[in-house]
Write the structure tokens for this entry.
Amino acid sequence: MKPRVAIVIGKRGRGSNMAALVRAMQNGKVEAEPAIVVSSSGVAPGLQTATELGVPTGVFESTQQLLEKLDGIDYICLAGFMSLFPAEILAKFPNRVLNIHPALLPKFGGKGMYGMHVHQAVIESGETESGCTVHYVSDQYDEGTIILQLRCPVMQGDTAEELAARVLSLEHQAYPAALNVAIKNLENQRDL
Ligand code: GRF
């Protein structure tokens, strides 16, 4: 049976990474099933997108409710989920919770480093390169073992929005590829 994946989007989650993951599973680029898309807010725009893609959705208001939605799930992909992920759930899903960050961690990560703040900081620090990082989730913001990074240039005169758009198109390639790696990693462990 294919592993079942839950995707957790943010309160205001636009859900573009979620959609990239779902499409990659639906077209067989990732051998897994998009089982559910959940958010802590019923008005997250990504929930509508998930429904259009034919994926069940759910809303949670507490850790307990989230755990119930994750019943029978093998992997959890955070995509635009801005809070620390509950330790209680991490303990139940070792090496099975992934996150994507729009910069080359360990640089430009941590509390407060989200959205345009990240890209603004990259530009202000004079970096010539940025990109995205998919990593396993730990109990600290943007820490946890890195699974995969993709890189792109920072152009002279880039605005944060321009850089964000360049990084976002990389994110949509990186996340499905990293999910494949995470699934293979656990399969290989099982074969040992
Ligand atoms: C992405 O930039 C991701 O790296 C970050 O939050 C953003 C979510 O965008 N964690 P989207 O909702 O997937 O479009």
About this structure: The longest helix spans residues 160-191. The chain is about 40% helix and 20% strand. The mean pLDDT is 96.
